[in-house]
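note to self: dont lose this again. the chain is below, predicted strucutre after it. 494 aa total, dont forget to put it in the shared folder this time
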Amino acid sequence: MYPIDVAAFALLTAAGVLAATGQRRPAVLAALLALAIALVALATLHWQAAPAATIAAIAAIFMRRRRAARRATRIAALTIFVIGILAAAIPYYLFPLFSLPEPDGRYPIGATRIELVDTARRGVLEDGPGEPRRMIVQLWYPASSSGEPIARYLPRATIVADAGSIARNAFHHPFELLHLAAVPTHARRDAEPAGGSHPLFVFNHGYTMYPAQNTPLFERLASHGYVVASISHPYDSARQQFADGWSRETTPLVVTPAMAEALGALVKDQSVAAWRRHFPAYAAAAKEDRLMRSTAAWLSDTRFALAALERARPSTLAGRVARSVDFSRLAFGGMSFGGGIAAEACVEEPRCRAAISLDGVTYDPAMFDRAAGRPMLWLQSDWPRYPLYPNQPRDPRTHPMDFAFRQWAAVAPADDFRFRVEGAGHLAFTDLIRMFRVRTPPAVYGTIPVAEIDGLIGDFALDFLDRFVSGQDNGFPHMQQRRHPAAIRHVPAR
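---
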């Protein structure tokens, strides 16, 4: 709980104690104060305060009208009151008002967002034939000062649309994430960027997810001198509200029967012989599937966002952030579908030095049986316990992405780092893991503690980038493995 919520509960408890000892007027005053504070909490979108506000209102009315009662009656009323207070605490337990881990770098952090319009591309995905492609890019960066207002996890202006869409896409109720507008980050909104020359990390969120989905990672990287640009992809992301009111809800993904059958055949048998036998049918099916349209759109979005940053006007905040970027020290990252996009974008972009995939997948046939030619970090979920696909073998020695970004007949290159994270489900690689005390459905999140997955993702990602983008000799990955034994090195079997 945050201080305002603790204060409301403390006053509610005081009201009950005062009423039990026969001090009716002080009890009414305490209940009214509790009501007022709970209403303030509700106004700041702490929806968990609704039961406490209701109990405080009922208590104030009841205690104001009730005349002197026998001791037994007062004890019974107090018992009911205490049970009500405990019940009101349940929403706080199930849907915690969480705090983000403190970044450990030396830089203050700035955060801003920009809206981009690509007039050269029209009719992308579900856009109308003449409608240009739009996207939002959120930036985290080393800042020169810390005097600006603290940025919230999601902007209040768009929280109703964004949070509801995020929740629905993750199989939760829309109201459950309204409090994200109240969660403070460690970044200052629209702060001036620090001087110097900083590497750039371009991130793609997961399919149906949102640009801020890995905020602790982004803040940590920014505090260590990286500029992070996280891109939204309308129709394939959660709903994003633009300044002029334009927004698009997530388009439900429908995979063609041919794609489902061909992919299922590949997933079922993880031998090279089986993949060589089934892959032509998969490649033919993929060409006609929506996933390949999304792949093309996301790659173009990524290229456009990168180019837009490079040519941003110096008079704008985004332009001043871009001036602090060393575009020759470039890396890509992403989660799930975005992880596959990140790896593919790195293969295509000559300046890319490395890529990070958080339980990433690719569906592009061109990325199979092909060497990446770049250092790659893959942090994958615990597929023997929580497989990504139906009928996926639970063999820890094989994974469908073993066939992506490497040549099947060759030994895995030394700079291809793949790890299975024990206890991690697919969405454990997003901030959603910290938003629900009861992880539903359990297999989607796994059992790994929040602090462990935070530290593991942050340590591996930062040290990998420091090693291959900034050129530091930091013992990667051996030191990181010793710190995080849940990360088990996976060497794809031929």
